[in-house]
Specification:
The protein has 350 residues and is an all-alpha fold. It has a single domain (3-179, 193-337), classed as ABC transporter involved in vitamin B12 uptake, BtuC (Orthogonal Bundle). The protein is 72% helix and 2% strand. Mean pLDDT is 86; it is low at 343-350.
Amino acid sequence: MSWDVAAILGIDGLANGAVYLLAGLGLVLVFSVTRVVFVPFGDIAVFAAMSMAAFETRRLPPTVALVGVLAALAVVVEVVPLARRREAGRIPRALLLYGLLPALPCVLATALVGRAVPHTALLIAAVLLVVPIAPLAARIALQPIADASMLVLLIAAIALHYLMSGLGLLFFGPEGSRTAALADGSFTLGDGVTVSGQVALMLAAALVLSALFFVAFERTVTGKALRATAVNRIGARLVGIRPARTAMLAYGLASLLAGFVGVMVAPVTTVYYDSGFLLSLKAFVAAIIGGLVSYPLTAIGALAVGMVESFGSFFSGALKDVIVFGLLIPVLLLRSALAHHADDDVDEID
């Protein structure tokens, strides 16, 4: 392998790592607040990519119908128990949160279809269109079992992924989608290594969004509420923080990150309705490197996954995914060796 080839693979690895960075941050955020490994993250990214492709062909994204179905189900799940408990005064708020608010990005998307608007406006609309998906899906499938064990929550998240994948096939069809590049042109680094504008944009977007993520957690009241819930749910309740609300906020932020991931990935690879599972798994590897709690270690893990995938594809394109997932074995062994295990008290039987 020459240095030129290594430089090209390194740049490609950084671009992949930027995608896994945002996805890993979303997974860690949801897990730290809710104890849920949010497997459908990649599916939401796919919906954003396919929504952008629909906008570019002047079609109404099927995501509008998908959001409508999820909103209707969430309204039923929320309103029926309130009606049974005769708490009619809380029904308008439920209709606002789970009916009206999710409809706003759908109205925006409908208004933009077929109009001569800047490409940036379509990108924002595609991202906003998927933001309600995670909170709605969580209200339907995950919030009713929020106090269950982590194993039950994981099983529910996997089942939700397959439901999302099936809905993707139903609404979007089996055909793949690819969008136009978000940034044209390229520039040359030393030794003649060319970097495309799309790759540079992906790296810049990852850095900017990560910085905003850090500032929001460190400097805002909402971010501190999320951190408090992640550290101690019972303690957060005692100081007036409602874990159910912070959970919905975490799902919304994860959905927003998934939207950005989707529109960044769509120009560089063909996206199918079931492409999200591999994306979630590779981001999960990065999150595991961070212990599902550390954002800086997750960022390092994401870059490592991107690099391993890039160089692994050079040596064996068929085994690149196996090589990436193989990272889990040494990471888990190392974490197990460094972790402090408490011995269980076992009563001796004479």
